[in-house]
Amino acid sequence: MNQSNSPLRVALFGSTGSIGESTLRVAAESEGRITFTALIAGRNGDRLAEQVAEHEPPFAALFDERAAKDWRNPCDKTKFYRGAAGIAALMKELEADVLINAIVGAAGLETTLAAMGRVKRIALANKESLVVAGEPVMREAARTGTELIPIDSEHSALHQCMEGRLPGEVSRLVLTASGGPFREATMHRIRNATRAEALNHPTWEMGPKITVDSATLMNKGLEVIEAMHLFGFSADKIGVVVHPESIVHSMVELRDGSYLAQLGETDMAHPIRYALSYPERWEAPGRFELAALSGLHFEEPDLERFPCLALAFRAA
Amino acid sequence: MNQSNSPLRVALFGSTGSIGESTLRVAAESEGRITFTALIAGRNGDRLAEQVAEHEPPFAALFDERAAKDWRNPCDKTKFYRGAAGIAALMKELEADVLINAIVGAAGLETTLAAMGRVKRIALANKESLVVAGEPVMREAARTGTELIPIDSEHSALHQCMEGRLPGEVSRLVLTASGGPFREATMHRIRNATRAEALNHPTWEMGPKITVDSATLMNKGLEVIEAMHLFGFSADKIGVVVHPESIVHSMVELRDGSYLAQLGETDMAHPIRYALSYPERWEAPGRFELAALSGLHFEEPDLERFPCLALAFRAA
Fold it and tell me: Three-class SS of residue B3?
């Protein structure tokens, strides 16, 4: 989307979380292709100060009023806002090509809706925007001509597999699920699991909320609902397959019964880079070795031990 | 390519071989979407007579003069030609949307060149056309505006993965190879292999020439050269990975280091159907079960035991 030589102007909402930090890493590796025009965090003022000192964005903000009150702005080029009202004001002044919404939970919806029509693209790591308000969000995106590109390894994979396909060519979406830390655990063990056990994800490093949601497969259920809205598929045309190695990030079934799959490293930098650079697709450091494809596994999810997934299909 | 209700007119060169018979099966399953305007075989007059009786094509022919001499035409609507000269004359009268070139070996080149500009699309199962004359064939295709769609599971997979990609987005092609019947055999055993052993392919049912070429990996070498011309990639941007299960039909590496793969059943009906129906992609009977993805393997080819593959890279 940024064919000129000027860097892509990125507003990063949720800059101190897992996706935020990965985005800063992608920017560092992108050879000046990205400039941050806003860095916005929840309550981690200390880390935000470091980020602002390094990137000197025109705008910064903290959602949390208390954290914002004590915040000392390290950069005199940066205008600082506090709380929801302050951020609403910031949004009116913001100039950005892409807004990354990496706010955790349903609180992210407000930012998604406020950004519509104010930026060309929303790179959406906040799946709750679509889970709680999929229809109005998609309608607003269409009305305002705002692109929505997912930052979720599964939906990014689906987006990549869908690209260039004709309407009707894709008959079904198949989300892969690692199965989380309790994939092979008994119902009893799952019931008595500790917080630390639930946070011990086998393949992905993510924030705590999504990691716990992954342990119960609730996250996969939310992803089913997210995929419905994002790609316009009904829930009966979306499948989930457990794939413990998380190498195949998701697949689409085509009308002739064959599949297209997107695969590679388990690193959120990939979907972030894709969401920023689409359709250009920037180079990435490192290389995926095809030997990693050996011995992959795929199995049906167990809806008895993981009732949240069944629940999501019923709610969809 | 055939948006109207009239059936796709297909000229089938090599109708009694493995690809030819699979094409007839695809036609039988395609609910009247295909009509054969020519059925052309090498020397199997008995089978050609059965096919002509069933499909009543406007044209039929046998390449082999001796077989043609004794042939009794079972259909008075069918005009019969014999030998290379006869088939050259037939080509001038032929009306077809797609010509399937499933002639075995380098003899297929003449048909490929003769079809240029006479049909909208050549569905190319004869990889030797590109191996022996890749540059002139691609030049003629461009000059005459003739589409070339491969009927080769690997190249069909690559075509499907490349579809909708921007120039430069795909950085490398990766052809999968089953490894053939001698994948784990010692050099000594390969040297002393019988014809029957070489014809015992573990995953694909194909004609004898390509099956023996698969046993030596010569076929994969030819495919590397075929891919070079078809997709405009140099040999150093084409890799080969041994994948004994033949479920992943091939992959492309993208600029950001991730991969797109096309996968599904090991049935030549798939690439045939794709080559005929592209870009529409017709439904197929049956369904691929994702459980088949479990326990796939990928390994580097052994160029010492399979020197033909190294030879092809040197020749490319």
Answer: coil
- Any alpha helices (H) in B36-127, and if so which ranges? 45-55, 65-69, 83-93, 108-115
Tokens of A19: 């996706």
A176 → chain B, closest CA residue: B290
How many interface pairs between A and B have CB atoms less than 8 angstroms apart?
A: 134
How far apart CA B239 and CA B230 sit, in angstroms, is 15
Give the number of other Cβ atoms within 10 Å of residue A151's Cβ.
26
Compare CB distances from A287 to B257, B287, B293 and report the shortest one's residue.
B257
Q: Which of B247, B290, B297, B299 to mutate to test the interface with A (most CBs of A within 10 A)?
A: B290
What type of residue sits at position A4?
A: S
User: Model-level pTM?
Assistant: 0.94
CA A151 to chain CA centroid, Å, is: 3
Domain with CATH 3.40.50.720 in chain B: 8-151
For chain A, the average pLDDT equals 95
Q: With CB atoms and an 8 Å threshold, state whether B288 touches A256.
A: no
DSSP class of residue A238 equals E
Bridge partner residues of B13 (DSSP)? B40, B101
A-chain CB neighbours of B298 within 8 Å are: 290-291, 293-294
Q: Regarding the domain with residue range B8-151, which homologous superfamily does it belong to in the CATH classification?
A: NAD(P)-binding Rossmann-like Domain (3.40.50.720)
Rounded Cα gap, residues A310 and A150, in angstroms: 23
How many whole angstroms separate alpha carbon B177 and alpha carbon B182?
12
Nearest CA-CA distance, residue B176 and chain A, Å: 11
Give yes or no for a contact between B135 and B45, defined as CB atoms under 8 angstroms apart. Answer: no
CA-to-CA separations, A12 to A17, A23, A61, B178, in angstroms, rounded: 11, 8, 10, 46
A264-308 confidence digits (pLDDT tens): 999 999 999 999 999 999 999 988 988 888 889 999 999 999 999
Number of neighbouring beta carbons within 10 Å of residue B142: 11
Cross-chain CB nearest to A257 (options B166, B256, B284): B284
- Which of B174, B262, B282 lies closest to A290 in CB terms? B174
Residues in Cβ contact with B54 at an 8 Å cutoff, skipping those fewer than 6 apart: none
Give B31→chain A minimum CA distance, Å: 14
B98-101 and A170-177 strand pairing: unpaired
**Which ipTM was obtained for this model?**
0.93
